[in-house]
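Need the bound structure for magnesium ion, inputs here:
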Amino acid sequence: MGSKEAKQQFDTDAMSFVGEKLGFEGKEAYNLLRTNILYSVRRKERQARVLGVTSSLHGEGKSLTALNLAYSLAESGRKVLLIECDMRLPTLRRKLNQPKSAGLSNLLAGMNEDGTVLHQNVIITGLNIVFAGDVPPNPSELLASKNFARLIESIENYYNFIILDLPPVGEVSDALIASKLTDGMIVVVRQDYTRSSDLSYTMRQLEYVDAKIIGFVYNDASHKTHRYKYKYGKGYGK
Ligand SMILES: Nc1ncnc2c1ncn2[C@@H]1O[C@H](COP(=O)(O)OP(=O)(O)OP(=O)(O)O)[C@@H](O)[C@H]1O
Ligand SMILES: [Mg+2]
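Answer from helper R.:
Posting the output first, comments after.
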């Protein structure tokens, strides 16, 4: 794939890039990401480490990275909650073929009467997911609300990791707002897709809000350019 347009055309059903379906090399790449994170984000007593996954643009692989990282952590015996915080353009529920249900937006707006927000042990034991829910008129406000901070606080003791699948920094302020609640941010960059100017802008914005950047995931890298030569092309550095 030589261009952003070509990649967009090539994009397929994401389920073929999740968990066991990745194959050995792809899984190994995410396991390496998991190891790097376990070493670089300090363990907290009885509390989950909260990580945000973002990028500059749509389609760079944030959701796939968040999902596969969550999977890899769950596979290693950790209890993980993945929260889909992209309430504007949610994709995870469809990617995972899960039935429609209330989600984060409903919860934060106090409209979760039937209590079906938490999906437990999705694809693997230990991986719980809260999907985005109905598209709300005010996603930034919901993420900035006390309700969101309280939600994270109230569940922190039940998980080893809480992973926030965030929207891109270059499009909306949601990821910057949510970064305040995280112990660190992972920035996804996709080969032949992300321009250096996009990434510079993203980094400036994240630095401006004092976000702690744990590192970068270089997604969809070709063999030639990837120093670990993973077929799936998932890298992690810095
Ligand atoms: N390494 C890869 N190889 C092949 N396809 C990929 C790869 N990474 C992502 N994709 C595909 O690209 C599309 C976008 O990926 P994903 O939804 O994870 O991106 P995103 O950054 O979360 O996008 P958005 O900002 O729209 O939420 C999906 O169809 C996904 O299957
Ligand atoms: Mg996404």
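Comments: The beta strands are 49-55, 80-84, 118-119, 127-130, 161-165, 184-190, 213-219, 234-237. The mean pLDDT is 86.
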